[in-house]
Design goal:
- The structure is a single chain.
- By secondary structure, the protein is mainly alpha-helical.
- About 75% of the residues lie in helices and about 0% in strands.
- The model has no long low-confidence stretch (mean pLDDT about 80).
- It is found in: Cell membrane.
Length: about 160
């Protein structure tokens, strides 16, 4: 099962990255979110899986597709020709980031400690709500304002004649 959900997630993410049509890319994002939700289910966390499907596959993707269609940005513009230094610079940056990620993963303590026996208890929705609205209320509100400002900024940048 893990391999199935991991492949769904990976294929969705790869098709999202290489898709030229933004609407189809948004639908590939849904596939990725469903794969991640399946991985949450395998981790015995049905609350996170349900939130993944409801919030990300539902609300966020609908919002993204609505903004894409509102701005009529789904028509592709002709890409500018990339310079050789841009290609080599981006390849070097990608290799540096991949090397850094591999180094961080290999040096983490998670790989050295044996996994704990048994499956952890499922997440309690009440505990999640308490943690979110008591311990992380300011961060929750700041992220909400940041997302709103980002969406308004994107609309202002694209639609100059409002």
């Amino acid at each position: 099962m893990f391999l199935t959900f991991a492949l769904i997630t990976l294929l969705g993410a790869l098709s999202l990255a290489f898709q030229k049509n933004l609407v189809v890319a948004g639908l590939c994002m849904v596939l990725t979110f469903f794969g991640v939700a399946g991985l949450f289910l395998l981790l015995a966390n049905p609350v996170a899986a349900a939130l993944q499907v409801i919030v990300y596959s539902g609300a966020i993707v609908v919002l993204v597709l609505f903004v894409i269609m509102l701005l009529s940005a789904h028509e592709e513009e002709e890409a500018l020709k990339a310079h050789a230094i841009q290609r080599w610079g981006s390849a070097a940056a990608a290799l540096a980031l991949a090397g850094g990620a591999v180094k961080v993963v290999l040096s983490s303590s998670f790989l050295r400690t044996p996994p704990s026996p048994g499956i952890p208890p499922p997440m309690d929705l009440g505990a999640l709500g308490n943690a979110l609205f008591k311990n992380h209320l300011a961060a929750f509100e700041i992220v909400g304002l940041l997302l709103l400002a980002t969406m308004v900024g994107a609309v202002v940048l694209v639609k100059r004649d409002l």
